[in-house]
Design a protein that fits this description.
Elements: E1 6-11, E2 22-25, E3 31-33, E4 39-41, E5 51-54, E6 61-63, H1 65-70, E7 74-77, E8 87-88, E9 96-97, E10 104-108, H2 110-116, H3 121-126, E11 132-134, E12 142-145, E13 148-149, E14 154-157, E15 160-161, E16 183-190, H4 194-197, E17 204-210, E18 222-232, E19 237-247, E20 251-262, E21 265-266, E22 279-284, E23 287-292, E24 298-299, E25 304-315, E26 321-332, E27 335-336, E28 344-345, E29 348-349, E30 351-356, E31 360-371, E32 379-397, E33 402-424, E34 427-448, E35 454-457, E36 463-480, E37 483-499, E38 511-530, E39 533-544, H5 548-552, E40 555-558, E41 561-563, E42 572-585, E43 589-608, E44 616-619, E45 622-649, E46 652-666, E47 672-674, E48 682-690, E49 694-703, E50 723-724, E51 730-731, E52 735-745, E53 750-757, E54 777-785
């Protein structure tokens, strides 16, 4: 070995090096991963009596430093079919075994992502089989988790919250700003995450870790990277990606760039005729005309393109300090909101234009980690981030010369200080501070399409700022190897200041101020009777503080209704209980089941309202019912998540994930409505044959029917989204697709991936979506790793 303290980890059967094996101190919070050669510098672990070595798919080992030294710093790991001790970070922002976390957490492996070839980060989440994805346009993807969606879910990128003050209750497409090629690990925490992540983490947390710059183990510069290209038939996709890592012993850099180009999406040929819109609107010589499509299965307009760039820099002067800076940039073209183009008025299309302008996201992130055993901490992390979000909405009614443009700009700043202290091997304390500020600027403009003349009009939001300050702690106690207990508490104070422009609407107020706090907590336990059996339970609370979208927006939520500001909102609270178990039978069958129940109290929902004593006003030329977001409801969600893995024989396995959930929500009249964001039963079942150089997978995606009576009351009138049953009522039909994916390693560094999605060319829409999913879709991807 080049260095006496460099360990080599190999497969006991093949003697091949194992990359990304985790080496962890049991007594301290020191975590090291092996490189491409299976090597890692463990000089920071000299003298340790318990060092845990693990990698998904292998039996874990616990050795002392002296034992590793006696074996000439070579460790052999034995493969196994199932590993219950996967390393995760989502629950607490520090690395720990999944079997020590009382919450349900899943990881989406890079190998599965490479095989499935998701087009967007939203599609990447859908690969899990446990996150439901709604789409109203190609440039979108709104996750649903356990009956919650949008601003009741939290997105974290490299530990930084992506949620901002204009995240709305309607469907969101912000997740597509992330580049799936530049993500090295994705985790989903199910249930409350507010103790660590604060507001919005009610239904779950989606945590994305982007590519980490890799240092060299010697004086020689380390260079590695990836080149990829992909095409697919359903939307004439053309994708290019490149990333490059170059590192020395103390400095490392990673550069990533991706570009996607998608044409209009073609839906399947076998399915409900209600989903076919065989025309589109085009302005010809200044006049809006209805154009009949040559191919009625094309969903026009849905084409868009996107570019992502990332640059990360790492400086690690010694084992105690680690500095990482990341720059992220994403920009889309404009893209049509397809479901709005399906709306009709007086027998004609309601809109000639309805599109989102270019969506822009930029983030600067500095993360400083200091590892040193002191009285206050063993590890200190400081994370500073600045983000900028830009988005816009552009619409124009059919045969109307006035185009309306509403632009939003949000500057988001955050600072986190996280500390970890191992009091002893049985007791670990995690605690921290957080500050978040969002500045919102909103502009409204009207433009004459003939003269080009522009006028100032009502903006979507008031100019506002939203502030959040928090202190939090999480405590882990392991009285024995079989039992782990965790508890946590967080106090969050939030401030909102909004200034309203009454030039266009006579609001009975000029400003809104919110000054309030929220206290949340959790307590959970994990019991491991033996190495093949895990039982976990968790009770947790979560909250969502009112943001600028809740308090201050004004827009047409649906025909004949208009939402107006409400400055009297308070936070909503969720109370959740989980019970789960995982069991491995004879190293060939693994079953995991989790049951959950969530109560959302003081829920912020859209309800009828009055403005200056009036329950209706003229908006956009239509007499519209006045509505506002109010703390006016209680909602419940309960369900089951079940998974199965079956190893039939060498290289052949079956996996299946099933999600069943029911949600209910109070209405104004005290009646109960099904919850909008509780998806019908859905899941995926996969049959995989995996050789060393070749993998083939056949799988089925499916969703159960949602009848008209089972739809949310607010959804039943949306004929532009749903199919019609025999009685002419809206409903969401059941569907399933058959799919085939393959991966072949041609040379040591060259890979070919391909497949066919929706083999039988089904025409279907995922529940609540305004855009049909792709019809039969052929995919081919070429990758060169070096």
């Amino acid at each position: 070995m080049a260095y006496s303290q460099t360990v080599l980890i190999k497969d006991a059967k093949t003697s091949k090096p194992i990359e990304m094996a985790s080496i962890m101190s049991v007594n301290q919070n020191i975590f090291i991963n092996t490189n491409q050669k299976g090597e890692a510098d463990i000089s920071a672990l000299v003298g340790e009596t318990q060092i845990q070595i693990q990698r998904l798919g292998y039996h874990s080992e616990i050795l002392s430093y002296e034992e590793i030294k006696a074996n000439d710093f070579i460790i052999l790991l034995r493969s196994q079919n199932f590993d219950l001790n996967e390393v995760v970070v989502s629950a607490t922002r520090w690395k720990q075994n999944s079997t020590d976390t009382p919450s349900k957490i899943i990881s989406i492996s890079p190998e599965e992502v490479a095989l499935q070839n998701p087009q967007t980060a939203a599609d990447l989440l859908g690969v899990s089989g446990n996150v439901y994805i709604q789409k109203s346009q190609q440039g979108g993807g709104s996750p649903m988790i356990r009956g919650f969606a949008t601003n009741r879910l939290l997105y974290a990128v490299d530990g930084v919250r992506m949620n901002n003050a204009i995240f709305r209750g309607g469907n969101l497409q912000n997740v597509i700003s992330l580049d799936p090629f530049a993500i090295e690990n994705t985790e989903v925490l199910f249930g409350p995450g507010s103790v660590i992540y604060g507001s919005d983490a009610i239904g779950g947390v989606m945590s994305f870790q982007t590519l980490t710059p890799k240092l060299s183990d010697s004086n020689t510069m380390r260079i590695s990277g990836k080149l990829s290209t992909r095409v697919s038939s359903a939307n004439n996709e053309k994708t290019l990606h490149a990333d490059l890592n170059y590192g020395w012993e103390k400095w490392a850099f990673v550069t990533s760039a991706s570009h996607w180009d998608y044409d209009h999406l073609r839906q399947g040929s076998n399915g409900p005729e209600d989903y076919v819109k065989p025309y589109y609107v085009e302005t010809v010589n200044g006049e809006d005309q209805i154009i009949n499509q040559d191919d009625p299965l094309l969903q026009i307009p849905s084409a868009y393109s996107q570019t992502n760039l990332m640059q990360k820099i790492r400086f690690k002067p010694n084992q105690k300090w680690d500095f990482q800076y990341g720059f992220h940039y994403s920009e889309t073209s404009d893209y049509g909101r397809y479901d709005r183009h399906n709306r009709m008025r007086n027998g004609l299309p309601r809109y000639a234009e309805w599109k989102y302008g270019p969506q822009f996201w930029m983030m600067n992130n500095l993360n400083i980690t200091h590892s040193n055993e002191t009285f206050l901490f063993d590890q200190l992390s400081i994370r500073l981030a600045q983000q900028n979000f830009q988005e816009s909405r552009i619409d124009r009614s059919f045969q109307n010369e006035i185009r309306r443009i509403r632009e939003e700009n949000v500057d988001a700043y955050s600072a986190n200080i996280d500390l970890i202290k191992a009091i002893n091997p049985e007791n670990i304390l995690f605690y921290g501070l957080e500050y978040v500020r969002n500045d919102v600027n909103s502009i409204g403009t009207e433009q004459n399409i003939f003269t080009g003349e522009q006028f100032v009009s009502a903006s979507r939001y008031p100019d506002a700022n939203w502030n959040s300050m928090a202190i939090y702690t999480n405590y882990e106690y392991k009285p024995s190897d079989r039992i782990t207990l965790q508890s946590g508490v967080r106090y969050n104070h939030f401030l909102l200041n909004a200034d309203f422009d009454n030039s266009f609407y006579a609001f009975p107020f000029e400003e809104a101020k919110i000054n309030n706090g929220a206290l949340t907590g959790s307590i959970g336990a994990v019991y491991k009777p033996n190495s093949s059996w895990v039982i976990n339970t968790n009770f947790g609370t979560a909250f969502r503080s009112p943001n600028v979208d809740d308090v201050g927006k004004i827009f047409d939520s649906e025909p004949g209704a208009v939402t107006v500001p409400n400055p009297t909102l308070q936070a909503e609270y969720a109370y959740n209980w989980d019970l789960g178990f995982t069991k491995v039978f004879n190293d060939f069958l693994k079953i995991d089941v989790t049951a959950y129940y969530t109560l959302l109290n003081n829920a912020m929902v859209r309800r009828d309202f009055q403005l200056n004593g009036q329950d209706s006003i003229v908006y956009d030329g239509v007499l519209s019912q006045v509505q506002a977001i109010q703390n006016a409801a209680k909602a419940t969600v309960y369900g089951l998540q079940a998974g199965l893995e079956l190893k039939l024989w060498s290289g052949v396995n079956i996996t299946s994930d099933l999600n069943y959930q029911l949600g209910e929500e109070e209405l104004d009249n005290a009646q109960i409505s099904p919850s909008r964001h509780a998806a019908p039963m859905f899941g995926v079942t996969r049959l995989t044959y995996d050789l060393s150089d070749f993998m083939i997978q056949f799988y089925v995606n499916y969703q159960a029917e949602r009848t008209h009576e089972e739809l949310s009351v607010d959804e039943r009138g949306k004929s532009e989204i749903y199919a019609l049953d025999d009685n002419g009522n809206t409903y969401a039909p059941a569907w399933h697709t058959l799919n085939l994916k393959m991966s072949y390693q041609v040379l040591d560094d060259f890979y070919i991936n391909g497949g066919v999605e929706n083999i039988t060319d089904q025409r279907y829409r995922p529940y609540s979506s305004g855009l049909s999913a792709p019809g039969r879709n052929f995919i081919l991807s070429l990758s060169y790793n070096f």
